Amino acid sequence: xxxxxxxxxxxxxxxxxxxxxxxxxxxxxxxxxxxxxxxxxxxxxxxxxxxxxxxxxxxxxxxxxxxxxxxxxxxxxxxxxxxxxxxxxxxxxxxxxxxxxxxxxxxxxxxxxxxxxxxxxxxxxxxxxxxxxxxxxxxxxxxxxxxxxxxxxxxxxxxxxxxxxxxxxxxxxxxxxxxxxxxxxxxxxxxxxxxxxxxxxxxxxxxxxxxxxxxxxxxxxxxxxxxxxxxxxxxxxxxxxxxxxxxxxxxxxxxxxxxxxxxxxxxxxxxxxxxxxxxxxxxxxxxxxxxxxxxxxxxxxxxxxxxxxxxxxxxxxxxxxxxxxxxxxxxxxxxxxxxxxxxxxxxxxxxxxxxxxxxxxxxxxxxxxxxxxxxxxxxxxxxxxxxxxxxxxxxxxxxxxxxxxxxxxxxxxxxxxxxxxxxxxxxxxxxxxxxxxxxxxxxxxxxxxxxxxxxxxxxxxxxxx
Length: 465
What we know:
α4 (137-145) runs antiparallel to α5, α5 (151-172) packs antiparallel against α6 (183-202) and α9 packs antiparallel against α10. This protein has helices at 14-24, 28-36, 69-79, 137-145, 151-172, 183-202, 232-241, 257-266, 334-347, 377-387, 435-445, 449-459, and strands spanning 3-7, 43-52, 55-64, 134-136, 180-182, 207-210, 213-215, 219-222, 225-228, 245-247, 267-270, 276-285, 296-304, 318-329, 351-358, 364-372, 394-402, 404-410, 417-424, 427-433. The protein is built from twelve helices and 20 strands. Helices cover 32% and strands 28% of the residues. By secondary structure, it is an alpha+beta fold. It starts with a strand and ends in a 6-residue tail after the last helix.
């Protein structure tokens, strides 16, 4: 699995993260095409290359096509550094407040890019929607869930959005589903959260690590008055995840609530680079010129190396480390167990299984077990605690010896089928047709799946001497 390290000494906003991921190699047309699946109209996406402190990177912008577009763009060009940031952390804000005090920059991305390099507009075929006051999180969730986007993209983007809705709901005393986002902020948030998941999915769903979180100082003005930096929603999101924050001397908001939610959802660990082998580097740019640091996010794609346990002498097997997550359940519906297993696999679990057990007071129960990469242990633990009746999850680190794996494609009378090979050094030990590949061919040909399995086994070439 690839790894991604986010270097964020100038904070983070959704548009800066997307700029960095595009600079890493995510094709802009792919991002456009996937976002169109949302059936969300009335906006344009723009990217262009620019530099900050002599470093070239990608500037990503979202512009709306509603009736206040020109006024909105003018305000953001002169006043904002971050994204349109969702009612400035306050979801009931239905108007645009000019920045004061420290030139409140809830969005460093949305200065208009025309004339600043090559821009690529998203030409939506749908007319701009009528101007509305806002969108509730429940409606946004329905919009994303009903789309034909992939399950991983939907789950992770909704996970990030839910963190923002929970924070706003706590601040304003409302259930998360009823939190209402200003229309400008709602569209921006949807693009940021879903776009980030689309980009990470394209990059191979890397394990995401981040440098220490740094925010600025001072005050911002919003519909509810002057608020200190970090703004309340950002602090609530970090408090819920347990993320440490350090302030610097910059008199501006550097981490937006959207940026905070993206970090809380996707990052598995925070700290300096350690044992990381870089392969590609991308830069996402902000708009404002900062006093003490370049206004950019650096995204490093590569491999996180860890000290592997010693392999026994004479062994040719591979080794790795996994986390074993377990919980005992005696009051959970079997249907929910199946749902949890599906979600766990979608989030990256290596295996999920349940075993009948006898619990205290002689009650029959179920032992639910997940095997997970260490970097996903926290996320999958959270899944078990929120989606089951568990009051606790046991976590054990385990080492594995395993066969080296390789997937080949073999021709069969029913079409090509994927076959997984297992090798111990130079010897092939296992050859197993992949179930999903066999099922697809069986359904297309109208034959029993066992016939496809048998044909794939026969077509698998013998092991090389």
